[in-house]
C-alpha cells in the first residue's frame, strides 16, 4: 500500500491525471499493490478565488507522502510566473527535489520529426538539476528613483559593465544565478549512478566559456565526480552545440546532466524529437524525500474538458513514480502497455488518431490487466 | 572602395576567410566596387606566444573600419573562455555591436534534418541581442576563506536562497545577467524594422515566467516597441517552447528577437535545421559603427589545413557584410551564386560532396563573374 498525493491542477491537468491514476490502479491489480490517493485542490481556480497558491500546512502535509502525482498548472487569467513559481517551483524547491529526470526515448510506433531516426537512435535520459541556477528567483530592478536599493550590487556592475546607474535615465534589471558545490555534486552523482546502470556515458551541458563563474564551478565538480566513476565515459559540451547534436546525433547520448535552466530548454527539444510534448514524462526526485511526477507539458487551457488531450506523458510519468516506489516490474509493464496501445492505434489526434483521452487510459489499463 | 578589416583567427578560420575574400572580390568586379583588405593577426597563436589577446590600439584602429570580416577563434591549447571572451565577445562589446543577425534559411538543394520541411518552410531571421544579458561577464565565487568579498551580494542571496555562507563548507558561485531598457529597445526596434521589410511578424523569446526580473523588463519594453509598429503581428514565447517549434513548425517564424544567451542557443539549433553549421552565417551589427561578420561555427582545429572545411557559412556572412555596406544587389548575387554552387554539386564532404574548401570558393566566384 502506497500513499500518493494527487494534484490535478489546471487546464487539461485533472483529466490527464485521471487517466494516470486509472492506469496505476490497474498496474496495482496486476502487480499486487494498492495506491491510496489523496487529492489536493491546488491550482489557478483556487488562487483566483482566494489568492492562495499553496500553504505551509499543505506543504507540511504533502511532505508526509513519498510521492506526488501532478497534472499541470497554468491559466490564461493569471500573469506568467505566478503559478509556476508559486506552485510548481515552490514544490520542487520545498521538497528539495534536486533531480529532474526526463527520459528522451522514441517509443515504438511513434514517428520522430527527425529524418532517418528510429527508436534505436533516440533513447537517453536527461538529469536536470532542479533547485539552483537561474531558478533561484533572485533579481531586481534599478530605477533612478530607487538609488539606495542594493548599492553594492549596483556598484559591482557599474564598474564591470560600465553602466552609470546614477545618471542613466534607463531602467536596468539584473538576475542572479547560483550554484553550490554540494548542489552540483549530488545531481552529478545521481547521473553517474544512473549511467552505471545504462550505457556508461555521461555528457555534461554548460556554457562555461561565457558564464564562467557558475559553470566553472559546475565543471570543477564534474571532474571530481567523474574521478569517482572511472568506468563511465564523459564529455563536456556547450548548451548551444547540444541542441544541434540532439537533432543530428541523438544516438550519441546516454545520460545527459545539465544545470536547471539549460535542462529546461534541452528537454523541451528532447520532447519534440521523441514525438512531441504529449509523450514526454518527468520526475522531480528527492531520493530520500517526497518526489513529484508530471508530464513535462503545460495545462493547454484551450483543450480543457474536450477529452482530446494525450494522457501518455502523464501515464508514463506514473511509470516513473512506480519505479521510484520500487515497483520496477510494474513500471516496465506500464511502459509496455503504452507501447501496446500505440501499436493498437488507440492514440489521440496529436498522434494522428481519433481516440479520446479516456480511451487511451482505458486501453493502457486493459492491456495491463491482461 | 570599402576598407574592411580581416581577421582569420584560429583553426580553419584563415582558410575559410580566404574563400570569403575571394568571393567578395569577385562580387566587386561584377558589381563595380573595390574592397581594400587589411589583415589583423589576432588569435590563439599570438596569444600563446605573447599573452596578447587584442590590444586597445588594435581596437582603436579597427574602429576606423566600417566592417570586420572574421573567420573563427578557438584552440585546444587554450582554456575555454579565454579567446571567446578576450577576442570575440571583446569586439562585440567594444564596438557595441548590439544586433547579432542570424538568418535561418534552408537553401535550395540542401536537405534539412527535419521530416517534410523544405526551403519554403525554413526562412526566418533571428535578431539576437549581443551586448547584455548573461554575457556581461559578472560573477564570482564565495569561499569560507573569503568571507569579506562582496558582503552585500552574499547577504542578498543568503536571505532569499536560504544559504548560510558563513557556516557552509561548500563553495557557492553566482552569475549576474543584466538588461537595460535602452539595450532592449534598440535591438527590438531593429527587429521590428526588419519585420516591416519581410512578413511583418515578430516573435519574442524569453523565460519571463522564471527569470522574471530581466525578462520582465524585456517584455515591458517589447510591449512599448510593438505599440510603435501597429502593422506587425507579435507573439511572446518561452525559450523552451521555441526549441520545439523550430523543429515542428519553423514556418511559423519570420523575425525572432531574443536576449543574448537564448539567442546563442536557438541559433545553433537554427543552424542545424538549415542543414548544419557549415551553412550558417552571422553578422554582429552596430548600425552606426563597426560591424563584424562571421560564420557562426567555431574553429574546428582538427580540420585545420586539410582544405575540407565548408566555406559557405563564411561566404554567406560576406553577403551580409555587403548588404551592410549598402551593396544589396551584390549581396543577393553572392547568395544566388552559393545556391548555384550547391546546385552544381560543388560541395564539401559535410554536405556529401567531394569538393575542397577552395573549389567551393572558386566556383562561387566564377558564377559571380558570370
Ligand atoms: C512551467 C515552468 C516553470 C517549468 C520550468 O521552467 O521548469 C517547465 O517549463 C518545465 O520544464 O517543467
Ligand atoms: C564562442 C561563443 C562565445 C559564441 C557565443 O556564445 O556567442 C558562439 O557560440 C556564438 O554563438 O557566436
From TrEMBL, chains A, B:
Cofactor: Mg(2+); Mn(2+)
PROSITE patterns: IDH_IMDH
InterPro entries: ICDH/IPMDH, IsoCit/isopropylmalate_DH_CS, IsoPropMal-DH-like_dom
SUPFAM superfamilies: Isocitrate/Isopropylmalate dehydrogenase-like (SSF53659)
GO MF entry, a single one: 3-isopropylmalate dehydrogenase activity
Keyword terms: Manganese, Metal-binding, NAD, Oxidoreductase
The protein's Enzyme Commission number: 1.1.1.85
Highest taxon of the lineage: Archaea
Domain Isopropylmalate dehydrogenase-like, chain residue ranges per copy: 3-364
Pfam families: Iso_dh (PF00180)
Keyword Zinc-finger listed: no
Record-given protein name: 3-isopropylmalate dehydrogenase
Provenance organism: Methanofollis aquaemaris
Amino acid at each position: 500500500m502506497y500513499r500518493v498525493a494527487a494534484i490535478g491542477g489546471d487546464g487539461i491537468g485533472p483529466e490527464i491525471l485521471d487517466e494516470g491514476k486509472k492506469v496505476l490502479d490497474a498496474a496495482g491489480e496486476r502487480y499486487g499493490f494498492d495506491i491510496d490517493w489523496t487529492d489536493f485542490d491546488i491550482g489557478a481556480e483556487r488562487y483566483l478565488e482566494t489568492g492562495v497558491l499553496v500553504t505551509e500546512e499543505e506543504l507540511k502535509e504533502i511532505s508526509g507522502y513519498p510521492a506526488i502525482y501532478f497534472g499541470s498548472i497554468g491559466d490564461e487569467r493569471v500573469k506568467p510566473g505566478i503559478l509556476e513559481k508559486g506552485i510548481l517551483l515552490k514544490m520542487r524547491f520545498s521538497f528539495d527535489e534536486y533531480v529532474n529526470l526526463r527520459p528522451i526515448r522514441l517509443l515504438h510506433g511513434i514517428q520522430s520529426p527527425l529524418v532517418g531516426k528510429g527508436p534505436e537512435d533516440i533513447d537517453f535520459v536527461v538529469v536536470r538539476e532542479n533547485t539552483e541556477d537561474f531558478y533561484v528567483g533572485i533579481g531586481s530592478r534599478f530605477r533612478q528613483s530607487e538609488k539606495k536599493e542594493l548599492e553594492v550590487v549596483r556598484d559591482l556592475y557599474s564598474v564591470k559593465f560600465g553602466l552609470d546607474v546614477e545618471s542613466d535615465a534607463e531602467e536596468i534589471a539584473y538576475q542572479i544565478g547560483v550554484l553550490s558545490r554540494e548542489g552540483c555534486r549530488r545531481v552529478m552523482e545521481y547521473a553517474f549512478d544512473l549511467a552505471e546502470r545504462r550505457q556508461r556515458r555521461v555528457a555534461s551541458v554548460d556554457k562555461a566559456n561565457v558564464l564562467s563563474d557558475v559553470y566553472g564551478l559546475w565543471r570543477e565538480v564534474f571532474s571530481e565526480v567523474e574521478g569517482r566513476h572511472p568506468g563511465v565515459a564523459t564529455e563536456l559540451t556547450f548548451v548551444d552545440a547540444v541542441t544541434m547534436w540532439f537533432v543530428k546525433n541523438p544516438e550519441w547520448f546516454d545520460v545527459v546532466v545539465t544545470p536547471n535552466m539549460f535542462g529546461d530548454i534541452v528537454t523541451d527539444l528532447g520532447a519534440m524529437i521523441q514525438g512531441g510534448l504529449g509523450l514526454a514524462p518527468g520526475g522531480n526526485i528527492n531520493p530520500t524525500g517526497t518526489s513529484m511526477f508530471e508530464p513535462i507539458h503545460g495545462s493547454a487551457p484551450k483543450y480543457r474538458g474536450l477529452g482530446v488531450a494525450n494522457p501518455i506523458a502523464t501515464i508514463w510519468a506514473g511509470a516513473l513514480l512506480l519505479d521510484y516506489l520500487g515497483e520496477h516490474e510494474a513500471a516496465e509493464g506500464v511502459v509496455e502497455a503504452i507501447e501496446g496501445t500505440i501499436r493498437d492505434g488507440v492514440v489521440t489526434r496529436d498522434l494522428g488518431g481519433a481516440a479520446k483521452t479516456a480511451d487511451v487510459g482505458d486501453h493502457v489499463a486493459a492491456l495491463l490487466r491482461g
